[in-house]
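Page 47, continued from p. 46.
Same chain as before, 418 aa.
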Amino acid sequence: MAKGKTRGRDRFDVLIVGGGFVGRTLGLALAKLAPKGFRVALVDAEPAPAEESEAEDARALALSAATRNLLAVLDLWPALAPKAQAIAAIDITDSDLNAALRPHFLGFDDELKSDGASAFMVEHGDLKRALAAAVAQEPAIAIIAPETVTDFKTDAFGVEARLGSGKTIEARLLVAADGKRSALRERAGIKCVGWSYPQLGIVTTVAHARPHHGKAVQHFLPSGPFAMLPLTGNRSSIVWTEETARGEAIMALDEAGFLDELTKRFGLRLGEIALAGPRQAFPLDMQVARSFVTDRLALIGDAAHVVHPLAGQGLNIGMRDVAALAETIVDATRLGLDIGAAAQLERYERWRRFDSAFSAAVMDGLNRLFSNDNVPLRTLRDLGLGLVDRAPGVKRFLVREAAGRTGTVPCLLTGERL
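Result:
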């Protein structure tokens, strides 16, 4: 058992279940920003990172300006910045797979430059290592791993969680950050609205002969969006949506066959390409919890919402949860209020549920609108993209929305300390 080994019962202010990006970031935010003496337990089903064999992960992550601000407040950005690639421009195209030309319909260039880079690409392993190192150095965080919470019960004063080892932990608030198949959400009886897509997500990294100059390309194909996202050096991260059966067949190809299919979609604008990392595939879902809170329990990240990856916003939406819940908890603690009381949790839910449901609906609508080969519909949507491209005010709003700068924004997303 890692740092935070418990004997019998131990008492914490917050018990976070799930050691992914959102769970660890919330723990770090509370440890750094809550009043002195605040204690956090982090229960993770996976071994502590220092004990893991570092398997290579194909994923890269698009961090919005708001997420960058949050990481900067938590002193994580200085370690990530040298390895991050700013997205300087975005091109959006729409055509069939065999089209000789892929005309530009919508682009973002000056809109990004006028407000600084609105997004950065970082590699999965870089963010994972930076977070793990920061959390391990925080004496206010007890890491309990590998371990699970098998059951919990609540009363007017707190929550009592039973671990898989048979030990018990008490806290004032339980936070479920245990993914889209959250056992805690199921145990609490919280239902979800959602569905699975008849699509497969494929991710990999490619090296190319010519530089990308920080430009991201989102190419809409009839089977689903194909994104080329800039990484440091002459490399790009690929996020590729394909009809399920076709995607499984592509994943089953040898490296040469897979690269051939990839080249058909990537094109020749950056010269010859080669695989520069492993390939991974995963099913795609849309899911939003009917409630983000119940008695002394709050959901964050994928436990609360899962969106289509076409805009790379899944992690950023989860980080908005982190910022909102951290501010709610820290404010309540400073006022001497019960952080697990209904009034505090309702504040968090009001802050996050509508935004999360709206984001999921937008991603779902865009995927359905563009993932088809209906010629009249393509004509109408391309006309719409062209009109947006000629409306600077609309483009600036879209950039601000993607950057997490619209609406009532938690302090951490603007770069302010609590």
